[in-house]
Design brief:
Elements (H helix, E strand, L loop, with lengths): L5 H13 L2 H8 L3 H15 L4 E2 L8 E2 L1 H26 L6 E7 L3 H4 L1 H11 L3 E7 L2 H9 L5 E5 L7 E9 L1 E5 L13 H4 L3 E5 L5 H11 L5 E6 L2 H9 L4 E5 L13 E4 L8 E8 L6 H21 L2 H5 L1
Parallel strand pairs: 3-4, 3-5, 8-9, 8-10
Antiparallel strand pairs: 1-2, 5-12, 6-12, 7-10, 7-11
Length: 314
């Protein structure tokens, strides 16, 4: 087999990432014909086709050889990042880049302060933070598009290494002045006559919430349906409706929004699994490793504070 050109390999990876030669051409500012020539050279060097030639505008599909080549490209890219990081580490942790993923519910409650604190300690490290649903984030970690991610819920953990996990009980976020405001705990039946915000079908937790309400024989009066946990919390805080949610991770003692987080004490309410995961077996660059070690330390400290007598009394 002839040597594979780095240019051909880079063009191939961009075609796979974007789904078409045309899209890759636009991203790379290279003519489609030039990309096609590089792909032809690549297939000639390998002695096998890497993409299935299909009619229409559907996304490109990899052949078996293409799948193997994509794995090779990811390994080379990861090792190249790790090499650069290790070389830089000879002079201290001065530079690096971290690709991280998290659900939208954490864009306010935990990560802004953590990212700011970490950046102040290591100003040469940059971040790309992708916000999406948990299943998509896990998929991106497995494809090595992300170094690590947070997930909520029943996400398959095969081929993921879990660095930190915790079960988060459900609460009802009750607006200030609401008739349920002074309850110490709530059951689903207590919430039945009031308006609720609910998740739409794009989020995994909708099925969990729907099953929970169905088992309680409750058909809620839906005041708002959305794919945003943040919006659900905010409209509840503004007095529009009740919201089922987990309590903010980084404020176990107080309520960062107007309203009260009241524990949902009901056998049909299952806690949500919160996890920090990486791709199993992947060698992580030094900057990513340092970031994850500090993040797991902070998560453990937040959990310890949440279990303190003061937090339990809040």
């Amino acid at each position: 087999m002839n040597l594979v050109s780095s240019t051909s390999l880079r063009y191939f990876a961009e075609v796979v990432r974007t789904g078409s030669i045309r899209a890759a051409s636009e991203n790379l500012y290279v003519a489609s014909s030039a990309i096609s020539r590089q792909l032809a050279m690549l297939e000639d060097a390998l002695g096998a086709p890497v993409l299935e030639r299909r009619q229409g505008r559907g996304k490109v599909k990899l052949t078996a050889a293409g799948e193997a080549l994509m794995r090779y490209y990811k390994n080379v890219s990861n090792e190249s990042r790790r090499l650069h990081s290790e070389i830089e580490s000879l002079q201290g942790l001065r530079r690096g880049h971290i690709n991280f993923g998290m659900p939208e519910s954490l864009v306010r409650d935990l990560m802004p302060k953590f990212l700011s604190d970490f950046s102040n300690r290591f100003p040469g490290i940059s971040f790309n933070v992708h916000v999406a649903g948990s299943p998509r984030l896990a998929e991106m970690v497995l494809n090595d598009e992300l170094d690590a991610c947070f997930t909520f819920g029943d996400v398959p953990l095969q081929d993921l290494s879990v660095l930190y996990t915790r079960l988060l009980p459900l609460f009802v976020l009750v607006p200030k002045g609401h008739p349920l405001e002074h309850f110490e705990t709530l059951r689903l039946s207590d919430c039945a006559e009031y308006g609720l915000s609910t998740l739409d079908s794009s989020l995994w937790a909708k099925q969990q919430y729907d099953e929970m309400l169905a088992k309680a024989k409750i058909r809620p009066r839906v005041a708002l349906e959305t794919n945003s946990y943040e919006l659900m919390r905010n409209v509840a805080a503004e007095g529009m409706c009740l919201t089922f949610t987990t309590r903010p991770l980084d404020d176990p003692f107080g309520n960062p929004r107007a309203g009260s987080y009241i524990p949902l004490k009901d056998s049909r309410a299952r806690p949500q699994r919160f996890a920090l995961s990486v791709h199993k077996g992947r060698n992580l660059p030094l900057a990513v490793d340092a970031f994850l070690r500090e993040l797991t330390r902070v998560l453990a400290e937040v959990e310890r504070r949440a279990k303190s007598p003061r937090a339990a009394a809040a």
